[in-house]
Amino acid sequence: MTELAQMKCEACQADAPKVTDAELAELIRMIPDWGVEVRDGIMQLERVYKFKNFKLAMDFTNKLADLAEEEFHHPGILTEWGKVTVTWWSHSIKGLHRNDFIMAAKTDQLLD
Ligand SMILES: C[C@H](O)[C@H](O)[C@H]1CNC2=NC(N)=NC(=O)C2=N1
Questions:
Q1: In the record, which residues are listed under signal peptide (predicted)?
Q2: 73 close to ligand 1 (CB < 6 Angstrom)
């Protein structure tokens, strides 16, 4: 199985399928530091990253912005002193696509 972080996002059209419950159960195990939240009926992946100060949090945020632009798939980001909350979901399908799991794995790699 190719590592999630090595995969590329696919263009996600409005009729693209959400992940099934079985796919969700399999994929979430591959990104153990991430949780699933439901907001306004939309399932999302979320992780809070901790940092020593605001500058390091901002540096991480900027790297994530570059990654999002490279993949043309964009997260929700809350950047605060010492922490960054990252949320992934697919706006076009109002839910979770495989792309979101790929991007969560790629987000974790930014820490390497
Ligand atoms: C207009 C639309 O937002 C764009 O086509 C792209 C940009 N980035 C995106 N990011 C995310 N997370 N979901 C999308 O559906 C999405 N669509």
A1: none
A2: yes
